[in-house]
Design brief:
Largest interface: A-B, 31 and 36 residues
Radius of gyration of chain B: 26 Å
Strand content of chain B: 5-15%
Structural class of chain A: alpha/beta
Number of strands of chain B: 16
Helix content of chain B: 40-55%
Oligomer: heterodimer
Low-confidence stretches of chain A: none
CATH topology of the largest domain in chain A: TIM Barrel
Strand order of the largest sheet of chain B: 3-4-5-14-13
CATH superfamily of the largest domain in chain A: Aldolase class I
Largest sheet of chain A: 9 strands, mixed
Order of helices and strands of chain A: EEEHEEHEEHHEHEHEHHEHEHHE
Radius of gyration of chain A: 20 Å
Number of strands of chain A: 13
Distance between the termini of chain B: 22 Å
């Protein structure tokens, strides 16, 4: 049986599309966006998270580590490369300063969790969202099994994707997906590469093809001041979107949620000068999309 | 809001609660005059008459609905025949930090010289404690249960429709006919019935006399009034008093005044728990509203103003002053008069009407602690009604609460009521189900379920009060299985409920014989027909409730034992009982296992939820169906008021990691910080309880404003309610917390573990977030108020 690494299955998500939804956050992403607010979802393997704030420096974890890869340093008790994510140190920590992000789940495990809120989906016109990380970076057979299970239950399914996946993956999931939440970060390929680690050719060509299949698409635009939301950036996106068929556009102003998670992962701090566009600007961007006939919404 | 209402509201909110001695004085005079010369019911009626004949009158500036329990707003009469306060009690009330009442020197003198000498040795409180045995007293003192009737009268009843259709002249006629029809030849209770009916006739006269005095008082005021507009109002008030309560109300205004006269009568005759309430107010007054609007006598704004005048009246009456344990279990000025809006009509159709929406507006504008306002939501009610109610609820001050009409009707049918009586019923007090106008549903006391587990784990011994209170059901270390533990728990539960109910029977009998309430009996069906008092079983239905507290705490504690001691052998029972004795000091491993690594109620996890179901069944089956002495039987409620704090104070550490003395869980809500999977998981867990076999359950949910803001937040809030009610949930209410709460939560992370905040594309528990992120959310929350 195929399995996938899941960070969390979050119930009562009400801002990612329609109704009350349960969102599955898969672990693993092909992109490395500098503004990522879920940095623990980049790697595909389970990872140790460590909170300096909660740590009492008792070193019980160090004693418990079977492969001795825990060291003390100026930033607390850090785990060195080589950690297998076995969780031995998590169990002994008296303060709950250590946790493992990511758990291997079968499609059935996930479906069992999704089933729990079925009456809420029904009541609210909600359903299930597959997100990440990158949902489409997961194994195609696994995804198909999961999606078939959702459809058998009559769940409405959204897939939240960066678009950075082979078209063949899309072909496997399209028959079972009601809505694609599709991110566009930048139209400029070079800057796209600079800020996300990859170019955007595949993302844009997949989006065009997806639109041609008649799929329902909600575009999501992360907006980071000084990086990707100048008037010119916005106009380029607008021009592109006018050439394809999308149902909604969500504007997602940047927030700093990712920073404390980076710290827990022992990653370097992200650039500190990132900021959301101010309210006035945000409204202007929204207005611009609306004038061009798009159903644009802030947040989500 | 009109200028008049603004003034009355601010006056109501700023007036200082104080003791009003006039009732105590007048009742004492009457007892001195009549006691021994007449039967007990007639004595009570004559005392009530004497009070109505002489009580102070009050018509405030701008008031349109008149009548106060005392001589001015926020006056609290006392009831020395139930609880005769010592001078020290009065001093404490006067000076205590919370729920204080000002007491004048003259009042203290009067209490010492006139009230105490007469009542000290004969108040119900004294008699009750004289008649209860040591075993009961030991358990009461140890905090296994509380006792509702030691300071207040048996209550919990809600007005039906009778006094909107019949005045007290007609009720008195009916009473006289019953007297005339008594069969002294073959009915051996004929004399008892006659005395009761005579008393009820006197009570009718008393309330009509009170109205007559108000009529004359209003006319006097009108004569002196220089402002012609106010003069006209006072004349109208006098005219109203000439019609009601002697006759049925003729218009909307009089209907509200009628209710209020009855309210004053019921709540000064004695001080029944949860006061009195108009219940299905929107349905009762809609016919008057419709007729008045059609005739042009009334418009929406005028009707709203009159309703708001009534709201002020409720808020003017603090709950009777309490002392001791009774204060701890209900530490509030609120007297729980609880108005039900919406729901269905007696014929089963959608009950929402124009007045329902008007009451929502009134609730929203007034934002008063009293009356407690709720909405009944039926699947037949329009979505618009639910959304309008949600718009008010998300403002975050806890009202309206939401009740499930279909659940209420099923609960009442399960308790043997007729379908029509069930549909006329609702929830009152906090969440208690009853047939409005037809039922005496007496709350008898809270029951400390986690305490029963503590005693079970100590072989019947209470480690806090150091007494052997329960039978020896075995040492915890000797239980070979979880099943053996549960058997012992069940034995202990039955033992303590036996003690509680034995005590109840004594108290109930004392009230039936010594404290009849002839006035209340006039307005509750079928007291007149039966010639029997409300406190003696005169109502059509007679239910006693025991309210279970701490189901979340006890479930998680049992889960901690089952999961760690029996199923996974993470530690032994010895190690656990040792950790409990040490309040988890130096037991970090066990503490962490039970707090963080054990299935808990509130997460839609069957491991814990099955335990909740089994505890619930044991409690319910120990109570439900036992007979009371009024011909009715016992049922359970799952609600705490403020008793979960008191019950925690008398409890050592719990196996779920709850520290000694900390509050236990409230209502059917999960223990603090136990629920980690969001609101849908909480609702799923809660709905695994068999609500329909109870008389009401209480669930609190906390949100930050951003979770419920905007169209989406509103719609999904409504969907949560609908889905919970589809699963037979009885009640839910929402706290939408503000910035200050978040700041407080930062300073007290342990105590606010269940606070959910919306972070970005998802929600999280506030305590889970880093300080920085918390700061950001606090700022964001403030913005969301702009």
């Amino acid at each position: 049986m195929k399995k996938a690494c899941v960070i969390d299955i979050q119930r009562y998500c009400i801002h990612d599309g329609d109704g009350i939804r349960t969102t599955v956050f898969f672990k693993g992403c092909p992109l490395r966006c500098v503004w990522c607010h879920n940095p623990e979802s980049m790697n595909f393997e389970p990872q140790l998270l460590y909170s300096r704030e909660k740590c009492g420096l008792c070193l019980l974890c160090k004693k418990a580590c079977p492969i001795s890869c825990i060291e003390t340093g100026p930033n607390g008790v850090l785990t060195q490369p080589g950690c297998t994510g076995c969780g031995g140190c998590v169990d002994v920590c008296p303060n709950g300063a250590r946790e493992i992000a990511g758990k291997s789940c079968s499609a059935q495990d996930i479906l069992n969790e999704l089933d729990k809120d079925a009456m809420f989906y029904e009541q609210s016109g909600g359903g299930v969202t597959l997100s990440g990380g990158e949902a489409l970076a997961q194994d195609a057979d696994f995804l198909e099994e999961l999606l078939k299970g959702c459809k058998k239950r009559g769940f409405h399914v959204s897939i939240d994707t960066s678009g950075q996946a082979p078209w063949s993956k899309f072909e496997r999931v399209i028959p079972y997906t009601d809505v694609f939440l599709y991110d566009i970060k930048l139209m400029d390929g070079e800057r796209h590469k600079k800020y996300t680690g990859s170019g955007n050719e595949l993302i844009l060509s997949n989006l065009t093809k997806l639109s041609e299949t008649g799929a329902k698409i909600y575009i999501r635009l992360p907006l980071i001041e000084g990086i990707n939301c100048s008037d010119e950036d916005m106009n380029e996106i607008l021009r592109f979107l006018k050439g394809i068929n999308v149902q909604r556009v969500y504007l997602l102003p940047y927030h700093k949620i990712g920073s404390h998670k980076r710290e827990k992962l022992g990653l370097e701090e992200a650039a500190t000068d990132m900021a959301p566009p101010d309210r006035e600007r945000l409204e202007r961007i929204k207005g611009n999309f609306e004038q061009n006939g798009f159903d644009a919404r802030i947040g989500g | 809001m009109t200028e008049r209402i603004e003034k009355l509201k601010s006056q109501s909110m700023s007036a200082v609660p104080h003791i009003d001695i006039s009732r105590a004085k007048l009742f004492t005079e009457a007892y001195k005059l009549f006691e021994g010369a007449v039967s007990v019911p007639v004595l009570r009626a004559k005392a009530f008459y004497h009070y109505m004949e002489n009580k102070p009158l009050y018509i405030g500036d701008g008031e349109l609905i008149i009548g106060e329990k005392g001589s001015s707003p926020q006056a609290a009469p006392t009831f020395p025949e139930l609880c005769c306060h010592t001078v020290e009690d009065l001093n404490i009330m006067d000076s205590r930090e919370k729920i204080s009442f000002k007491v004048s020197g003259e009042t203290k003198r009067m209490q010492a010289e006139e009230i105490i000498p007469f009542w000290e040795k004969r108040s119900m409180r004294t008699r009750i404690f004289q008649n209860l045995d040591d075993e009961w007293k030991a358990c009461y003192g140890a905090g296994l249960f509380t006792e509702f009737m030691e300071q207040r009268g048996p209550g919990h009843t809600v007005g039906g429709g009778v006094f909107y259709k019949k005045g007290f002249l007609q009720l008195k006629d009916e009473i006289q006919s019953e007297i005339a029809a008594l069969d002294f030849l073959s009915d051996r209770d004929a004399l008892t019935k006659r005395e009761q009916l005579k008393a009820m006739a006197i009570a009718c006269d008393a309330i009509m006399l009170y109205a007559k005095r108000n009529h004359d008082f209003a006319l006097d005021k009108a004569r002196e009034e220089p402002d012609p507009a106010r003069k006209a109002e006072l004349l109208k008030i006098a005219e109203n008093c000439a019609v009601v309560p002697a006759n049925a109300p003729k218009n909307f205004w009089q209907a509200l005044q009628m209710y209020w006269f009855v309210h004053i009568g019921v709540t000064t005759e004695l001080n029944p728990w949860d006061a009195f309430s108009p219940g299905r107010l929107d349905q009762h007054i809609y016919p008057f509203y419709k007729a008045d609007v059609q005739s042009g006598e009334l418009d929406e704004e005028k009707a709203l103003e009159l309703l708001e005048c009534l709201w002020v009246k409720f808020n003017n009456q603090p709950a009777p002053p309490k002392v001791g344990i009774t204060l701890k279990e209900s530490s509030t000025y609120t007297d729980f008069a609880n108005i039900n809006t919406g729901g269905i009509s007696p014929d089963g159709s959608d009950g929402v009407n124009d007045v329902s929406y008007l009451i929502l507006r009134c609730m929203d504008e007034m934002k008063l602690l009293q009356p407690s306002s709720n909405v009944q939501i039926s699947r037949k009610n329009p979505q618009k009604f639910l959304l309008e109610a949600c718009k008010i609820a998300r403002k975050g001050w806890g009202q309206p609460a939401f009740y499930n009409t279909e659940a209420i009707v099923s609960e009442l049918l399960n308790a043997g009521k007729t379908i029509e009586d069930a549909r006329k019923g609702g929830s009152s007090g906090c969440v208690e189900t009853g047939c409005f106008g037809n039922e005496a549903y007496i709350l008898t006391g809270y029951f400390n379920i986690p305490k029963v587990l503590e005693i079970t784990l100590n072989n019947g011994f209470d480690p806090i009060s150091s007494q052997q209170l329960g039978p020896k059901t075995g040492r915890a270390e000797d239980f070979k299985s979880y099943g053996e533990l549960m058997e012992a728990f069940k034995t202990q539960m039955n033992h303590f409920l036996d003690i509680k109910i034995r005590g109840n029977h004594i108290i109930e009998k004392l009230y039936a014989e010594n404290m009849p309430v002839p006035f209340l009996s006039c307005v509750v069906n079928d007291c007149i027909k039966k010639g029997k008092d409300y406190n003696a079983g005169g109502a059509r239905y007679n239910t006693n409730y025991i309210q279970g507290v701490g189901i979340g705490t006890v479930t998680d504690s049992l889960s901690a034992i089952k999961f760690n001691v029996f199923d996974n052998k993470n530690f032994s029972m010895n190690e656990l009982t040792d950790a409990l004795k040490r309040d988890f000091e130096g037991c970090e491993r066990i503490y962490r296992l039970v707090t963080d690594r054990t299935p808990k109620y509130g997460n839609d996890d069957d491991y814990a939820d099955e335990i909740m179901k089994s505890v619930f069944r044991i409690f319910r089956d120990s109570v439900t169906g036992r007979p009371n002495i009024k011909g009715g039987s016992y049922r359970i409620d799952m609600l705490p008021t403020t008793c979960h704090v008191y019950f925690g104070e008398v409890l050592g550490a719990s196996a779920n990691g709850r520290k000694k003395g900390k509050p236990v869980s409230e209502g059917i809500s999960p223990d603090k910080g136990a629920d980690r999977k969001g609101p849908t998981a909480v609702l799923k867990s809660c709905s695994k309880m068999d609500h329909l076999s109870t008389g009401g359950t209480l669930l609190n949910q906390k949100f930050t404003p951003s979770v419920v803001e905007g169209e989406t937040g509103l719609l999904q809030l409504a969907n949560l309610i609908r889905a919970y009610f589809n699963m037979d949930g009885h009640h839910i209410q929402f706290n939408v917390v503000d910035r200050q709460t978040l700041i407080d939560a930062q300073n007290d992370p342990e105590g606010t573990k269940d606070l959910i905040v919306r972070v970005a594309g998802y929600s999280d528990y506030f305590h889970n977030l880093s300080r920085t992120l918390q700061d950001e959310i606090i700022e964001r929350t403030e913005q969301s108020f702009c």
